[in-house]
Structures are given as C-alpha cells and as structure tokens.
Amino acid sequence: MTTTTILLLAFGLGAAFGALSQKTHFCTMGAVADIINMEDWSRMRMWLLAIAIAILGSAALHASSLIDLNKSIYRTPNLTWLSHLVGGALFGIGMVLASGCGARTLTRIGAGNLKSLVVFLVLGITAYMTMRGVLGVLRVNTLDTVALTLPGGQDLPALLAAAGMAPATALALSALGLGGGLLVFCFARRDFLTLDNVLGGLAIGAIVVGAWYVSGHLGYLAEDPDTLQEAFLATNSGRMESLTFVAPQAYTLELLMLWSDSSRKLTFGVALALGVVAGSAIWALLSRNFRWEGFRDVADLVRHLAGGALMGFGGVTAMGCTVGQGITGVSTLALGSLITFAAIVAGAWGALKYEYWRLMRED
Question: Which UniProt keywords apply (predicted)?
Fold first, then answer.
C-alpha cells in the first residue's frame, strides 16, 4: 500500500464525513443545545450512536488483530487527567462561542460560512502554539505535570485485566458493555428512528472504524525501509490515527505556509480535514444549501475569535475534540477520552446556560 493510496482513502473518508454531516445535521454543540432548548435528545443520540458503532467496530478490529489500539495516542500509561478536564471544558466553551466544534467548522466552511473560515485560522494558529509554541511550554509545565501513571494502560480493558480478568474477556466486556449500552439507549426512543438520525450515527461511527483500518492496517509497516522500525504511513503522530480535527487544522496551516519545505508533507489528518470541506461543499451545492455567510457585527466576530482560540488550546491540551476524543478516542475505551468527553459536554452546557441567561437579562 502506497502513501498516495492512504492519503486518497483518508480524503475519501473525510469527504463522506463532510457530506453526511451536512445531510444529517450532525453537530455535537447542537446536540447539547437541543437538550437545553427543547429537551430534544435526537442529535445527542446520533452522537452516542456514532460512539457505540465506533467502539464495537474498533474492538472487533483489535480482537481480530487487524489493528492494535495500543498503538494509538489514546492508550498510554500516562493519564493527564487535569489536562483532559481543563482542555475539554475550554473546548466545550469555545465551540459554543464559535458556533460549532472543529469538525463543524470544516463542514460550515464547505457550505460557504466565512465565519468558520476565521475560526479555522484562529483555531489552527492557537493549536500550533499549544503544540510547539509559547502555549505549549505553559501546558507542559503546568497542566500536563498533574498525571497518574497506570503501567498496564489507561483503557478500560487494561484496567480490568490488571484486576485479574483475561484480556480477551476484558475487551469484550468493556466494548459490549459500553457500546451495547449506548445502542440500547439510542434505539429506546421511537422518535429517534428517522433516516437522518440513524444514518448519521451509523455512518459516522463506521467512518471512524474505517479510518482506523486504513491507518492502522493498510498504512502499517512492520519495518520502514528507511528507519528499519515499524511505522504508520503519512501520520503526524507516528502512530495510527483516525478522525480528529484540531491538530490537523494546525498542520494544514503549517503545510500551506511551508509548502516549499520538502520536509513538510501532506498527512493523513490533513487529507481527512480537506476531505471534510470538499464533501460538505459537494453536498451543499447539490442540495442547494450553499450560501455565503459573514459576521453580523463586531461582537459576533469577537465571540468567534475567542471560540476558535479556546478550541485550539483546549483541543490540544485534551488531546482531541468532540470527534477526536468524543468518538475516536472513546472507541479505544481510554479513560482519558471518557474524561474529555464529559468535560466537553459540561463546558458546552455551562456556556449555553450562561448565554441564555445573558440573553434573558438583555430582553
């Protein structure tokens, strides 16, 4: 399998994600807002269904030895729980201010939203600063120093195995317990069973599994001819990757700014991000929903600038976003991903409650 093939497959998976997000109105910030505004859990169930499918599919690939989830960034012995909490909460607040998460930002760009283009630029720059710049020094020397070391791994199967359970049983129990429980919760309500809700959840979960397979199996080299070490083709992290939309936005800007630097290459995450924009644009044009949209006023601009910055810092600090941690990370059953998911929802919930309280006061 060549690097070009891996990148084309990544672009195709991203395009499918972008088109599906447009068609089904998949939006994690919207899921939280719907619950607060209308007590409507439909979009939250769509998100949870995607998580369930991702968990079950990823566990099946791992159990069949097609991929090794331990070779992802999520299953590490070091649990930086404070970074997950703070980063996740800041990301949740940021996505409310920016009218959507990192994935939604790319989807909205494809549909002609110029506000999201500004968010993309701010998010990408702030994320890069948090990975390698001044904010990265702050992060590493403060939040990341607070951690628990779990030698066996921080994922639920490893924790159960450390308690004496057979590894295969621990994996099956964790995946079926969490994934199966989410499936039951999602399908327990008949009003959830619409084409868009079910399609969005099933397909987006399957795309995450497909990305694991492409990166972790098709893109896996047991021995790189250049380094003589195992490698995963075209990944920024050097490990297998699936859908995530914070660091790739930073790497997209880096690639565009340093295009003439031969050491900078198109990567799996960047191809996915570009695919999301392309897929969203195609669907928006075909469905005649493409339209240019700009800022209402200065206050609207400031909100989106702040939201992009909070998502850039929070997403890198928490090692992912509503998709990167909330679906991809949770599919590995990593404890850090579960903490981040809860923190993102809590941050978004608090920000939405404050926004509604502020609007009520103004009225």
Answer: Cell inner membrane, Cell membrane, Membrane, Transmembrane, Transmembrane helix, Transport
Q: Which residues contact 302 (CB under 8 A, 6 or more apart)?
A: none
- Burial pattern 82-100, b for ≥16 Cβ within 10 A else e, equals bbbbbbbbbbbbbbbbbbb
Work out the widest C-alpha separation in the chain, in whole angstroms: 66
Burial 103-142 (b: 16+ CB within 10 A, else e): bbbbbbbbbbbebbebbbebbbbbbbbbbeeebbeebeee
Do residues 205 and 328 touch, judged by C-beta distance below 8 A? Answer: no
* Phi, psi at 293, each rounded to 5°: -140, 130
For residue 149, give the H/E element and its range.
strand 148-149
| Residue among 73, 15, 28, 44 at smallest CA distance from 210 | 15
pLDDT digits (tens, 9 = 90+) for 60-88: 999 999 999 999 999 999 999 999 999 99
Strands annotated E in 168-311: 220-221, 231-232
Does 320 score more than 90 pLDDT? yes
Which residues, including other chains, have CB under 8 Å from residue 2's CB and lie 6 or more apart? none
- CA–CA gap between residue 176 and residue 153 (Å, rounded): 19
Bridge partners for 88 per DSSP: none
Residue 100 neighbours by CB under 8 Å, 6+ apart:
27, 29, 30, 107, 108, 116
- pLDDT tens digits for range 228-237: 789 999 999 9
Contacts of residue 315, Cβ cutoff 8 Å, sequence gap at least 6: 87, 91, 102, 123, 127, 246, 247, 321, 324
User: What is the average pLDDT across 2-6?
Assistant: 95
- Please compute, for residue 18, the number of CA atoms within 13 A of its CA located in the half-sphere on the CB side: 30
Tokens of 326: 């909330």
Residue type, 55: I
Window from 167-176, 200-209, 255-264 with minimum mean pLDDT? 255-264
Per the structure, the count of domains in the chain is 1
Q: Which H or E run contains 78?
A: strand 78-79
Q: What is the pTM of this model?
A: 0.96
Among residues 326, 338, 333, which one has the least CA distance to residue 72? Answer: 333
Find, among 73, 21, 336, 59, the residue nearest to 213 by Cα. 59
